[in-house]
Amino acid sequence: MKLADLRKLAIRRQFRIRFALRNGMECVVDEHGVARVPALKGVPDFDLEMELAPASEFVLEPAVSGKDSPKPRTVRRDGLAAMTSAAPSAHDDE
Predict the structure, then answer these.
(1) Nearest-CA neighbor of 9 among 82, 65, 72?
(2) Is residue 24 part of a domain?
C-alpha cells in the first residue's frame, strides 16, 4: 500500500485518514488527497512514503461531520489495504 492509494481512497470515500509517524507526529490525508503533518514546523527530515510502510493502524474520519455521519473508526493495515484494493480505479469510471 502506497501513499497514492491512501490519497485515492480518501478522495473517493470522503475520509480523513490519520496514521502515526515513527517520530511521534501524525500524518493526515484529507478528503482532497493532501497529506499533511500538522505538527511539522519546518522542512521535514523524513519521507512520508517511508513513514507509511511500518504504520499498522489508521483512523478513518468522515470528512463531513454531522448528526448522521459515522463516527471515526480505527482500521488495521490489512483492512485498509483491502479497502484500497476494492476501490475502483479511475478507468472504471469511464
Answers:
(1) 82
(2) yes
Cβ atoms of 73 and 80 closer than 8 Å: no
Q: Is 9 exposed, middle or buried (0-12, 13-18, 19+ CB in 10 A)?
A: buried
4 in a structural domain: yes
**In the chain, how many domains are there?**
1
Average pLDDT score, the chain:
88
Using pLDDT thresholds of 50, 70 and 90, give the confidence band for residue 89. Answer: low
What count of residues does the chain have? 94
Helices (H), the chain: 3-13, 48-52, 77-86
Q: Which residue has the cell 490519497?
A: 7
Compute the distance between CA of residue 93 and CA of residue 61 in angstroms, rounded to an integer: 24
Parent domain of 39: 1-63
Question: Residue 70 domain-assigned?
Answer: no
